[in-house]
Design goal:
With 123 residues, the chain is of the alpha+beta class. The relative contact order is 0.30.
Length: 123
């Protein structure tokens, strides 16, 4: 099974964190990706730029509307993700516990639905 582990934290608090601490957290995350890769669990992972640098797109009645971020009024935003293979939700939760971002906010664990008809990304 595939799982998306969505890292949420407070962007304002994170921006106020010392540069050295942010570098250490990133290095720890990169190390975790290598450990997951060695175990055959790694698919992809990446931090995201802050929410105010993004855009929200809606299409209603055939008309597109584009709005600058942030997307919702909240203190916590999506900060990044890990995309992994795991045998069960419980196994994915164990990986989520190892993500450094869980110490700053929380990690949402969601199983990815398998559907047919998508392009083969290996080609």
């Amino acid at each position: 099974m595939r799982f998306l582990l969505i890292v949420h934290h407070n962007e304002t608090a994170f921006a106020a964190t010392a540069d050295a601490t942010r570098r250490d957290l990133l290095a720890e995350s990169v190390k975790l990706t290598h450990e997951l890769h060695a175990q055959g669990q790694y698919i992809d992972a990446s931090p995201l730029v802050p929410s105010d640098a993004g855009a929200r797109v809606r299409v209603r009645g055939g008309k597109a509307s584009v709005t600058d971020g942030p997307f919702i009024e909240t203190h916590e935003h999506i900060a990044g993700y890990f995309f992994i293979h795991a045998d069960s939700l419980a196994a994915a939760v164990e990986v989520a516990k190892r993500i450094p971002g869980a110490r700053l906010g929380y990690v949402e664990v969601r199983e990815v639905r398998e559907i047919s008809g998508l392009p083969d990304k290996n080609k």
